[in-house]
Amino acid sequence: MSCIVTTILLVEDDDRERTLIRSALETAGYQVQEARNGTEALHRYRLAPTDLVITIS
């Protein structure tokens, strides 16, 4: 039986918040990619699209 892992691109400029949210998502079983801003997020998404993008404002 195979398990599908959802990948998430997390976009947040604050390192502490990004680390906390990433930890929670990974604990819940998600694979998380990070970006510090919109420009970096677009670059990462174009290279490797994810299932979900989360932005924190």
Strand order in space, largest sheet: 2-1-3
CATH superfamily (homologous) name: Response regulator
Q: Which architecture would the CATH scheme give at its second level?
A: 3-Layer(aba) Sandwich
| Stretches with pLDDT under 50, minimum 5 residues | none
CATH-assigned fold name: Rossmann fold
- Overall average residue pLDDT: 95
What is the gyration radius calculated from CA atoms?
11 Å
DSSP helix fraction = 40-55%
Instruction: Specify the number of helices.
Output: 2
Structural class, by secondary structure, is: alpha/beta
Described by strand count, sense and barrel closure, the largest sheet is:
3 strands, parallel
CA-CA gap between termini: 38 Å
Strand content: 15-25%
Number of strands: 3
Name the overall outline.
flat
What number of domains? 1
What letter string, H or E per element, gives the SSE order? EHEHE
What is the CATH C-level name? Alpha Beta
Keywords, separated by commas or semicolons:
alpha/beta, Rossmann fold, three-stranded parallel beta sheet, single chain, 57 residues, 40% helix
Q: What would you note in describing this structure?
A:
With 57 residues, the chain is an alpha/beta fold. It has one domain (7-55): Response regulator (Rossmann fold, 3-Layer(aba) Sandwich). The chain is 40% helix and 25% strand. It is built from two helices and three strands, in the order βαβαβ. The chain has helices at 15-27, 38-47, and strands at residues 7-11, 31-35, 52-55. It has a three-stranded parallel beta sheet. The protein is flat. The model has no long low-confidence stretch (mean pLDDT 95).
